[in-house]
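Ex. 9. Protein: protein N-terminal methyltransferase.
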Amino acid sequence: YMGSAGERTCFPQLPRPLSGRGKPTQQQKPVWLFWRKTQTTTMASDVVEDEMEFYSKAEKYWRDVPPTVDGMLGGYGHISSIDISSSRKFLHRFLRDGPNRTGTALALDCGAGIGRITKRLLLPLFKSVDMVDVTEDFLNKAKTYLGTEGQRVRNYFCCGLQDFSPEPNTYDVIWIQWVIGHLTDEHLLHFLQRCRLGLRPNGIIVIKDNMAQEGVIMDEVDSSVCRDLEVVCKIIRHAGLSLLA
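Predicted structure tokens for protein N-terminal methyltransferase:
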């Protein structure tokens, strides 16, 4: 995991070798080499030559993905339970009783897709959840996928994170999983700055994502980048956030 919070940020190890909404990574070399053309550099700006094309290609990729759990996880739907379990265990560290306890009133699910994380992680822990995703079909599917518990979803925001601004002083937890690779460095920086403003007192931002072994790797398939830990930490600190764990 990797996270950041309005004066607090969380940073444990990734439990599974995934990126995007759940894709094979460098650790899975046979799969990686079979279907991915990559190039490595030090910053995402070095590999994103055309910003508009970078975003439009990603939007097109996800429009063609089926609105299912397997689709959200790139064909790796079987890892969903393990993923949710490890996320829950991590998040509980901040929801325990104590002077700096994070609240449980409202969470924001970024890159929410059909609501896999909202349904199994956030709704069981928070009174209400907001969802944001760039793909309208996913959000429409979420309204049935979530079932009756979906009544506790306040808002379904159809928007790219590069254009999304959380309402200030609103969220206890902002959960950002397998989606930061769809933002340029500049847009990720500015998005995290806006997220910081969106936190309530003792609120946290959690980023769960795959980290490259070195530099930045471009994925031409879904038009995303995978950054190494040093690059991500640098962006987080420049956003005025502190690493917690």
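Check your answer against this statement. Strands lie at 2-4, 40-41, 106-110, 128-133, 153-158, 171-177, 199-208, 216-219, 224-227.
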